[in-house]
Specification:
CATH superfamily of the largest domain: MetI-like
CATH architecture of the largest domain: Orthogonal Bundle
CATH topology of the largest domain: MetI-like fold
Helix content: 55-70%
Strand order of the largest sheet: 1-2
Number of domains: 3
Number of helices: 18
Radius of gyration: 32 Å
Distance between the termini: 60 Å
Length: 415
């Protein structure tokens, strides 16, 4: 056998190719074991919670699980079908079962999400469930005439399936009519879309303000001698060492009508005592306090990028005849774009999801979309809260995608 046909082996006599494959497999297994804790952490704290949110936003079996007979009648008939005696008989059987199992409140809560103020109708009927005898239509109408309302039956039809898109319809300010068609709610009741757009607009405004305030501070930090820069950095990081509630409360003391700032302006004669500025419990208070809280998240990425820009670039540009403005616009600013992008992403995403600060200083005018999510969670309408959370997540992902297309996520630098 020639040397070309001889099989290469390792020192212990194993074929070299098989040994390389085994070594690569061992390396991949070792790498997987190293990242396995991080993978489990991401699954438990990110993927699974988001999956549960998406699931809750389309699933609620409060009515369908406790009223199976009338749910079958809805499944067998077309939307808009007038309820007959069979429908009332099925509903009577469900009410008797719910009364025995004490689950009428659960079913009523689900219907109440679709048709407000219908919970009392269900609880009232459940208390008289044992008195329901044929003819069932007359028996239900004797308890309450609302059982003849098409709106009640349409609400039950919408609730008769465990999976529904009604919560997303409500999140977009739509509702189902009595015939099952979809249309927008009255203008006076449209709150979610307006609040959704307002949240993104305020978050963008706070991001721009943070950028304008952070840019000169970060530039000063990057150009000062290290000893002075470290001292100034302590002042920048000081808010991180202070409780969020303490900082927010301090701003309430400063901005309220009888607070430090208004009292100082009155003392200096800038404003009259009857013309104190409303700077708290409104939209202005939300912007001021959130800008202060989120400002370090803009300064730090900018500083990390500005610190490594060689000063020789600016000197070379000036030696070639460029003005200070041209040097800044053509040399310095493009080099800081990765830090600007990272800071803008951090501040914007944090601002979109903030709810504690707007709840404390925003009043009725300064509430954000996250405050509405918290409201529904506290009222136990988790499905509605999940739908609103999903819309907020989609909006952030769309902006993230646009950022990647326009600037490029590869240019995002946090340090």
């Amino acid at each position: 056998m020639t040397a070309a046909h001889q099989t290469l082996t390792t020192a212990d006599g194993r074929p070299l190719k098989a040994a390389l494959v085994r070594a690569q497999r061992r390396a991949r297994r070792r790498a997987f074991l190293l990242v396995a804790p991080l993978l489990v952490f991401v699954l438990l704290t990110f993927v699974i919670p988001i999956g549960q949110i998406l699931y809750r936003s389309v699933h609620h079996d409060g009515f369908s699980a406790n009223a199976p007979a009338v749910s079958e009648w809805f499944a067998a008939t077309a939307p808009g079908t007038e309820p007959d005696e069979a429908a009332f008989a099925a509903l009577a059987a469900d009410f008797k079962a719910m009364q025995a199992a004490r689950t009428a409140g659960v079913a009523a809560t689900r219907v109440n999400y679709t048709l407000p103020e219908s919970r009392s109708l269900f609880t009232k009927t459940a208390r008289s469930a044992d008195d329901l005898v044929p003819p069932y239509r007359e028996a239900f109408l004797a308890i309450d005439a609302k059982w003849a309302s098409p709106a009640v039956w349409q609400a039950m039809r919408s609730s008769s399936s465990a999976y529904t898109g009604d919560f997303y319809l409500a999140s977009a300010d739509f509702e189902r009519a009595e015939d099952g068609s979809i249309h927008r709610v009255e203008e006076t009741q449209r709150i979610y879309v307006q609040l959704y757009l307002k949240t993104f607009a305020l978050s963008a405004l706070i991001t721009v303000i943070c950028l304008l305030l952070a840019f000169p501070v970060a530039h000063l930090l990057a150009t000062l001698p290290m000893a002075k820069a470290n001292l100034l950095m302590i002042l920048v990081l000081l808010p991180f060492w202070t409780s969020l509630l303490v900082r927010t409360t301090s701003w309430i003391v400063l901005l309220q009508s009888q607070g430090v700032i208004n009292s100082a302006l009155v003392a200096m004669g800038v404003i009259g005592d009857d013309g104190r500025l409303p700077m708290i419990y409104n939209q202005a208070g939300t912007i001021i306090v959130m800008t202060h809280i989120l400002l370090p998240f803009m300064i730090l990425p900018l500083y990390s990028v500005m610190r490594v820009i060689p000063p020789g670039y600016a000197r070379a540009a000036r030696s070639l005849g460029a003005t200070s403005w041209t040097t800044f616009r053509r040399i310095y600013l493009p080099l800081t774009l990765p830090g600007m992008g990272a800071g803008a992403m951090l501040v914007f995403i944090l601002a979109v999801g903030y709810y504690i600060t707007p709840a404390l200083v925003g009043g009725a005018d300064g509430q954000l979309f996250s405050n509405m999510i918290q409201f529904h969670m506290s009222k136990s309408n988790w499905s509605m809260a999940a739908a609103l959370s999903s819309l907020l997540l989609v909006g952030v992902l769309i902006l993230y995608w646009l950022y990647d297309k326009l600037i490029g996520i590869d240019n995002l630098k946090l340090g």
